Amino acid sequence: MIQKERTLSIIKPDAVSKGIIGAIISRFESSGLLIVSAKMLQLTTDQVLEFYNEHKNKFFFKDLMEFMISGPIFVQILEGNYAIRRNREIMGNTDPMKALAGTIRFDYGESCTKNVIHGSDSESSAKYEIAYFFDI
Ligand code: IDP
Q1: Angle at 58 between CA 49 and CA 19, to 5 degrees
Q2: If you take atom 8 of ligand 1, which residue's CA is the nearest one?
Q3: What is the DSSP string of 28-85?
Q4: Pairing relation of β-strands 73-81 and 4-11?
Q5: Is the CB of 93 under 6 A from ligand 1?
Q6: Domain enclosing residue 64, as ranges
Q7: Is the CB of 105 under 6 A from ligand 1?
Q8: Confidence of residue 136 (pLDDT cuts 50, 70, 90)
Q9: 12 annotated to bind ligand
Q10: Is 133 helix (H, G, I), strand (E, B) or coil?
């Protein structure tokens, strides 16, 4: 049975400052993922700590923190069949050097930190992350 899902997507500060929000959104829409809610905001250090709490003791956390508070982000809820998995496929590997050709991170990512996009990685994280940013 086809499973209609919702997932959280964040266009990160590197992509917002490069002016490629539209190019990224086009990829979702042309893949059949609908944007059902969206907003721009700038994260605080407390919010990054909360949102990326599982990574707080990792070696890359300081860089991740600095990067994620460095400018506005574009947060959106994507909806579609198998949206969680399909969004992850469209995004590509965390490391743009390992991402498949044609994925967002392959095309626009600069490094593991500056990797353009976030997407929920499971049903439970999608639920938590959507509720974190939206009241729906
Ligand atoms: P994901 O964004 O592909 O789901 P996660 O492992 O959840 O990857 O990591 C969250 C974010 O932390 C990544 O998108 C990236 O910005 C950063 N990150 C993860 N691993 C590394 C690393 O090895 N070096 C630098 N940054 C990393």
Answers
A1: 60
A2: 94
A3: HHHTT-EEEEEEEE---HHHHHHHTGGGTTSTTHHHHHHHHTSS-EEEEEEEEETHHH
A4: antiparallel
A5: no
A6: 4-133
A7: no
A8: confident
A9: yes
A10: helix
- How far apart are the CA of 104 and the centre of ligand 1, in A? 15
Beta carbon of 132 within 6 Å of any ligand 1 atom: no
Q: How many domains does the chain have?
A: 1
Answer yes or no: is 57 a known binding residue: no
pLDDT in tens, 82-120: 999 999 999 999 999 999 999 999 999 999 999 999 999
ipTM above 0.95, yes or no: yes
- Residue 109 CB neighbours (<10 A): 26
Q: Is 55 marked active-site?
A: no
Q: Which residue's alpha carbon is at the smallest distance from atom 21 of ligand 1?
A: 112
Identify the CATH number of the domain in which residue 102 sits: 3.30.70.141
Taking residues 51-55, what's their average pLDDT?
97
